[in-house]
Amino acid sequence: MAETALLLYVVGLFLTIPIAWSLGANDAANPTDCAVGSGAISLRKALTLFALATAAGAILQGHMVMKTVDRGIVPRIEIAGAFVVVVSVCLWLFLCTWKGMPVSTTHTTVGAVIGYGAAAYGLNQLNLNVLSNVFIGFAASPLISLVMAIGILRLLEHGLPRLVKDAGRRDRVMLGLIVLGLVFSAYSFGANDIANVTGVYVTITKEIGGMPDRETMILLALLGSGGIALGGFTWGYRVIETAGRKITRLNLTTGLSAELANALTVYLFTTVPYLLIGWGLPVSTTHSSVGSIIGVGLARGARTVNKVTVLKILAAWALTLPCAFLLSFGMFKLVSWLLV
């Protein structure tokens, strides 16, 4: 049995590499879609900055949400459970990425963890206090990002022309600001989303390797960051095209507004709850990013928002939690039966 458990651990940890690739391919759009969609920076340069800033966020602040995914929702994630969660998330993300839809990796991970917890412990053993905060974050983050994007857009439209009179210089300032916004957004993405890759393996790896909690999280963050970067470079363009151009047309001002709104929202949900209650909230960076883009589209008039694309994205989001839950629940029951 010990050999089987070790095999599941090794195979499951190895599978975090393709799940990191899947996350990078699907979610590279979150920090980069606004910059690329507005024409501020090329796709290749945007993805390079995305990879570097994501790694920095994962290493420096990834522990805030990794702790929540690892032991905040369920009492404990065993080796078989971690294996099942990783496989379930990987399968759902590959399907949605293949369809070119910016589905939420966070919703997928949380749904899979809940499915495992329900199968292994029962629904009554889930940490409802943490889960309620997570679901509040799910609902609030895109709305906050939308409102922030409208507010930032108004500030830029009225404040920047007063500070920088020359139109050419103003455009150059905007280009610099939108690239900085990309970096901040990618950093926030790394700090929040690295938990979706290797968060379920923190306690298990710490016990097997005999390492302190913080060092374990840094090691897992490095592993996940490499896979995320690879996914962004090899397939990220598919979803960047959907999120950055098909929802609404972006220019420098609207692109910067959406980028900053997304970055601020994700960073606040990562940091503030951790400082107040000890658990960083795993919010959907996809929701936040798309919410910010819709916000600037609404600020320019509702007709500029591609409603068909938005409805398709909402449909994919609605399916994610229940599908991930069912995948994880069923797979854990199957694995448990096979291991008996």
How are the elements arranged and paired?
Layout: H1 2-27, H2 29-37, H3 43-61, H4 63-71, H5 79-98, H6 105-120, H7 128-163, H8 167-193, H9 195-198, H10 202-209, H11 213-235, H12 237-246, H13 252-277, H14 285-299, H15 307-339
Helix pairs in contact: 1-5, 1-11, 2-3, 2-8, 2-12, 2-13, 2-14, 3-8, 3-11, 5-6, 5-15, 6-15, 7-13, 7-14, 8-13, 10-11, 13-14
What does this structure look like?
The protein has 340 residues and is mostly helical. The chain has one domain. It is built from 15 helices and no strands. Helix 8 packs parallel to helix 13. The mean pLDDT is 86.
List keywords for this structure.
340 residues; mainly alpha; 15 helices; elongated
In brief, what are we looking at here?
This protein is an all-alpha fold and 340 residues long.
When the domains are counted, the total is 1
Tell me the distance between the termini.
Answer: 10 Å
Rg on CA atoms, Å: 20 Å
The major pleated sheet works out as:
none
Name the structural class.
mainly alpha
Name the shape in a single word: elongated
Average predicted confidence as pLDDT: 86
DSSP E strands, number? 0
Task: Give me the number of helical elements.
Answer: 15
Give the ordered list of helices and strands. HHHHHHHHHHHHHHH
Weakly predicted, low-confidence segments: none
Helical proportion, percent range? over 70%
Beta-strand percent range: under 5%
